[in-house]
Automatic annotation (TrEMBL):
<dbReference type="GO" id="GO:0005524">
    <property type="term" value="F:ATP binding"/>
</dbReference>
<keyword id="KW-0808">Transferase</keyword>
<dbReference type="Pfam" id="PF00294">
    <property type="entry name" value="PfkB"/>
</dbReference>
<feature type="domain" description="Carbohydrate kinase PfkB">
    <location>
        <begin position="11"/>
        <end position="315"/>
    </location>
</feature>
<keyword id="KW-0119">Carbohydrate metabolism</keyword>
<keyword id="KW-0418">Kinase</keyword>
<dbReference type="GO" id="GO:0005829">
    <property type="term" value="C:cytosol"/>
</dbReference>
<comment type="pathway">
    <text>Glycan biosynthesis; starch biosynthesis.</text>
</comment>
<dbReference type="InterPro" id="IPR002173">
    <property type="entry name" value="Carboh/pur_kinase_PfkB_CS"/>
</dbReference>
<keyword id="KW-0547">Nucleotide-binding</keyword>
<dbReference type="InterPro" id="IPR011611">
    <property type="entry name" value="PfkB_dom"/>
</dbReference>
<dbReference type="InterPro" id="IPR050306">
    <property type="entry name" value="PfkB_Carbo_kinase"/>
</dbReference>
<dbReference type="GO" id="GO:0006000">
    <property type="term" value="P:fructose metabolic process"/>
</dbReference>
<dbReference type="GO" id="GO:0008865">
    <property type="term" value="F:fructokinase activity"/>
</dbReference>
<comment type="function">
    <text>May play an important role in maintaining the flux of carbon towards starch formation.</text>
</comment>
<protein>
    <recommendedName>
        <fullName>fructokinase</fullName>
        <ecNumber>2.7.1.4</ecNumber>
    </recommendedName>
</protein>
<dbReference type="InterPro" id="IPR002139">
    <property type="entry name" value="Ribo/fructo_kinase"/>
</dbReference>
């Protein structure tokens, strides 16, 4: 059953960046005014991989870290969280990426990045662990790996190899405009691989950015539909999400919580969805089952906003059951 406690045993491979987020100890102040920062491991694809294993699924991370203390710390965090690090490379000449996060009083964020270049940008196609990539039932990725070469070519190769091996392609653009040379280039590159994905998740803000419309409605969402797509999801923060499949569409309510830090909420949502569908992809064609899975995913996202930092806040199955019982 889609809503049972059993997590998928098929391997989910997550590709992209892993970095250190520096999160201010006090919310609602600028970076300059923050009295101190907590060091928190992050990076959307890594967050997704750990979200999966935290819920009992199987995940591997593919990417590149600096051959420095932060890089080895991050590789250690993957292993501690039972994520395969067989696809991790280290770069002696570049640092692990850093991000300073400003937390507004409502838990929403702004970012300042230190990565020019950082190790994740320097992953080369020939460094990919293709056996690992081909063994995944789902291949998940974002768009930050499309910004510059050689990482862009590595991303394209990994995605193509996964598809050839029969994997479902899962795409969460995870728009971070400060990392792109321009908004136009960001939109062009994010959409350049759009038609390859089987499953796409965008936030309400990303929907506005990609469509150029301020309306968050069915018409706007369906303008992003493509013929190969099996499921399109639009997350709406505390309001839950909307879903669009070939034969049905609808919405699922969110869970009201006191948000402290929204970092990682979307990654938690995606990871929990992938865990639930990896061994039964027919779920995305069965509306009743899909709604149960999306309720579970919304609960995961909500829980993740109640603590600072992404990875420390990712829930386990019993955390999610508590929230689901309370509704």
């Amino acid at each position: 059953m889609a809503n049972s406690g059993a997590a998928g045993q098929g391997l989910i491979v997550s590709f992209g960046e892993m970095l250190i987020d520096f999160v201010p100890t006090v919310s609602g102040v600028s970076l300059a005014e923050a009295p101190g920062f907590l060091k928190a491991p992050g990076g959307a694809p890594a967050n997704v991989a750990i979200a999966i294993t935290r819920l009992g699924g199987k995940a591997a991370f593919v990417g590149k870290l600096g051959d420095d203390e932060f890089g080895h710390m991050l590789a250690g965090i993957l292993k501690e969280n039972k994520v395969s690090a067989e696809g991790v490379n280290f770069d002696k000449g570049a640092r692990t990426a850093l991000a300073f996060v400003t937390l507004r009083a409502d838990g929403e964020r702004e970012f300042m990045f230190y990565r020019n270049p950082s190790a994740d940008m320097l992953l080369k196609p020939e460094e990919l662990n293709l056996n690992l990539i081909k063994s995944g039932k789902i291949f998940h990725y974002g768009s930050i790996s499309l910004i510059v070469e050689p990482c862009r070519s590595a991303h394209m190769k990994a995605m193509d190899e996964a598809k050839k091996a029969g994997a479902l392609l899962s795409y969460d653009p995870n728009l971070r405009l400060p990392l792109w040379p321009s908004a136009e280039y960001a939109k062009e590159q994010i959409l350049s691989i759009w038609n390859k994905a089987d499953l796409i998740k965008v936030s309400d803000n990303e929907l506005e950015f990609l469509t150029g419309s301020s309306k968050i409605d069915d018409e706007s969402a369906m303008s992003l539909w493509h013929p190969n797509l099996k499921l399109l999801l639009v997350t709406l923060g505390e309001k839950g999400c909307r879903y669009y499949a070939k034969n049905f569409k609808g919405s699922v309510d969110g869970f009201p919580v006191k948000a402290v830090d929204t970092t990682g909420a979307g990654d938690s949502f995606v990871g929990s969805l992938l865990v639930k569908i990896v061994d039964d992809l027919s779920i995305i064609q069965d509306e009743a089952k899909l709604r149960e899975v999306l309720k579970y995913a919304c609960a995961c996202g909500a829980i993740t906003t109640t603590k600072k930092g992404a990875i420390p806040a990712l829930p386990n199955h019993s955390d999610v059951l508590e929230v689901l019982k309370g509704k």
